[in-house]
Amino acid sequence: MKTINTNYDYLITIFILSKQTGTVRSVDIAHEKGISKPAVCSRMKLLLKLEYITMDHRGILLTETGKSIAETLNRNYSLFKTLLETIGFDENNADEIAYHSAQIMNPKSFKECSDYIQKVS
User: Fold this and answer.
1) 39 lies in the same domain as 19
2) Contact between 62 and 70 (Cβ < 8 Å)
């Protein structure tokens, strides 16, 4: 079984916060995730090294690569949550399952889910 990629979790958090506020700081991520600022700073160093983010005096920004990954994850999450709710899952269960599944969904699975939702809509 695959484990959930924590890097992806941070990318999604940065993506969502940037949509809400425009500027993302380490303290914003720490507050959103309920963790310490040093834990966030440690992960930001790794994301910076992977070239998923840039950091400057204004805050944390997703690179094109980071943004592309985050957009794909967000799209997969939304699609899978809709699918689960369509087949009868309650909203909380659908949310949790979709959140974790979005990180491991391959393009073929995404297309199959998308096709199914279009059929039943």
Assistant:
1) yes
2) yes
Total count of domains within the chain: 2
SS3 of 59, please? strand
Instruction: Identify the pLDDT of residue 2.
Output: 38
Beta-carbon contacts of 83 under 8 Å, excluding residues fewer than 6 positions away, are 113, 116, 117
Residues 22 and 57 in one domain: yes
Cα separation of 121 and 21, whole Å?
33
pLDDT score, position 32: 93
Shared-domain flag, residues 60 and 98 = no
Measured CA to CA, the distance from residue 36 to residue 30 in angstroms comes to 6
Contact (Cβ atoms closer than 8 angstroms) between residue 5 and residue 103: yes
pTM of the model: 0.81
